[in-house]
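Service request form, structural biology core

Requester: graduate student, group of Dr. S.
Request type: structure prediction, single chain
Budget code: on file
Notes: please return the result as structure tokens.

Sequence provided:
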Amino acid sequence: VIDEERVMILKTLCVMICFASLTVHLIPVSTAKNGVSSKSRKRIMPNPVTEPPVMDPIYEALLYCNIPSVPERSMEGHAPHHFKLVSVHVFIRHGDRYPLYAIPKTKQPEIDCTLVANRKPYHPKLEAFVSHMSKGSGASFESPLHSLPLYPNHPLCEMGELTQTGVVQHLQNGQLLRDIYLKKHKLLPSDWSTDHLYLETTGKSRTLQSGLALLYGFLPDFDWKKIYFRHQPSALFCSGNCYCPVRNQYLEKEQRRQYLLRLKNSQLERIYGEMAKIVDIPTKQLRAANPIDSMLCHFCHNVSFPCTRNGCIDMEHFKVIKTHQIEDERERREKKLYLGYALLGAHPILNQTISRMQRAAEGRKEEIFTLYSAHDVTLSPILSALGLTEARFPRFAARLIFELWQDREKPSEHSVRILYNGIDVTFHTSFCQEHKRSHKPMCPFENLVRFVQKDMFAALGSSSASYYEACHREGF
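Core staff response, request fulfilled:
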């Protein structure tokens, strides 16, 4: 039993979060046809300011939504004055999107995917962004990207479509990086050209549009002739190195672990059974529909969960499924099957990144700002491979950044910083944990190079000396 003093502390820390956590139903919301909420709309979305003392699924969901609010503080670009910024490599997850799955026999949330400058969430460059995108040239994109819309524009969102929230999230990301890397550190020359940038995205409209929103915040009113987005067919960004049988075996074992964990969770099965009765379908069919994806959209957009004549899906259902997700992530780290998948899945893109950093360290000016517009299934393996075990699952518009620095006092020496959502996590990576004891401000670049070229394979517990050998080793 929680005593009175503890209750008061919890209330002081996070009154609104506690309120949302204990609410059984989301407060009903009526939405006008143009997508603007009526005056009767009430908020259930507290600002996640203080982390609760115990794991709270509502708090974690709020962090995942990443609703744009006040400008965030960040640690990008921080270094002693005698260090010079040489190159920056940015990995992003696309911004807030409409669900990829629908809960059967329920009404999907009515989210407006047109961009309206005076509607929340707001960004001062939103209107200019739409105007600039309307002038975009198909020649700026590798096939098949030129067939994709450059910004969301549907009165009712389509499956997987980027929302206005998603666009604003990345306009903010881009503006933040502009203030740090261009205004403060002058990373790009004023007469920058196509050669200075490397831009790559998967073939989904939400990733292309997210990349363009960040780029517009970073380089407002950029010259379309200087922009070229490359297409990446794989969510792992593995280019020509995607065939890896051992990686797939790790993934199969990881999926088996997920399945067994779910079977052990009787509360989760009960909740799925309740929800299946509400929508009048078999439990197995509901589970296959991945209801949490749609429920997160309702939650992030402050729209009540769906109801049928049999009842309503409610906050308790949401909390149980979200809690299971968090427990699954915790066991995933402990069992380390996912780590094997992640090391092999992330190696190609990390290898490409250190190659670009090596060229920049040699003084070459090509591709000194790199942007990969990607997915949660892109960032998650990279985070795991780097040894960032405490990193949260990539939220909407998450950003992971690699910075390369040169010591002006020792020009031949270069260092790296790794930042996740603005937080410096360099000394939490497996390749730089030991270096923290040296009390130096950054990690030697050679640590990262050695990790990618050698230590990643050793972490698999094999004697493989190359990515190909690790992917094709016998007896796994």
